Amino acid sequence: MGTEYKWKDPRPSRAQKAIPRSAHGHFVVQMVIGDCEDDFGQVSRCGSLAEYYTRMIVLAERDTVDVLEQVGPLNWIDEKGRQREHYLDHVVLKLDDRKVGLSNKPFRRVSQDFGDELAQVLQDGQAKKVIDELFLVTEYAHDPVVAYNAELMRACRDADKEADTEASTAAASIDEPTTLAQLTNIIGLGPRGFRALVRMIQAGDLIMKVEEKISHDSLVLMAEDCHD
Predict the structure, then answer these.
(1) Strand 29-33, strand 42-46: pairing
(2) CATH of 29-147 among 1.10.540.10, 3.40.640.10, 3.90.1170.50, 3.40.1350.10
(3) Strand 219-222 to strand 178-179: parallel, antiparallel, or no bridges (unpaired)?
């Protein structure tokens, strides 16, 4: 008999400012991050499509430990001398203990006033030890190749012990650039094998010959076989 699956709700969103669960004519998303065999994960919400792509990209970075959303309030003073509050769209926790703040803004709405606001927010965030750095992110920061691969990596994130073992064995057997299709055939587990290879790329164990959208035609090498 198989093991009975038991559902457990993920931990609730840590947003310190309300993010709507739905909206008319506006993109919102709720996802679960950090989920694995031993952890039911954490609800993470985005209030715009731009926030979603930023979240996907930073989650796929190998040195990302966690991502918090709508962190604040951080204070700044407007041109009339009034104290205002700012909530950061993302705070990315890195392996080296850096806390990187990211603020999404459409390029057409970026202004000198908003730059002044972020400068004050950075100062307050550093004083409160909420962030070490702060970056403005517009739609021009979302490389379509990086965003595509980040979404694929997230879709393939669930570990599969058999496929992962077979993928490691197959990858170790190659000594020249090989397509993911060829490696998938060697593994012999169909889509499970391809997903395992994507996990190896995300982990840095497999290196792509060309920076491109990951596909069956992508050429890869084991990391230790790559030379400058």
Answers:
(1) antiparallel
(2) 3.40.1350.10
(3) antiparallel
At residue 27, the 3 state secondary structure works out as: coil
- What pLDDT is stored for residue 5 in this prediction? 60
The DSSP code for 198 is H
Structure tokens at 169: 């064995």
**Does domain 158-225 match CATH 1.10.1760?**
no
What does the pLDDT average to over 63-73?
Answer: 97
Grade residue 228 by pLDDT with cuts at 50, 70 and 90. Answer: very low
What is the Cα 163 distance to its own chain's centre?
Answer: 23
Tokens encoding 158: 């669930």
| Burial class of residue 19, CB neighbours in 10 A (0-12, 13-18, 19+) | buried
pLDDT tens column, 15-53: 999 887 777 777 899 999 998 878 899 999 999 999 999
* Predicted pLDDT at 24: 72
Kindly report the pTM of this predicted structure.
0.90
Q: Sheet containing 133-137: which strands, arranged edge to edge? A: 64-77, 83-94, 99-104, 133-137
C-alpha–C-alpha distance, residues 17 and 105, integer Å: 17
Neighbours of 13 (CB within 10 A): 17
Statement: residue 227 has pLDDT above 80: no
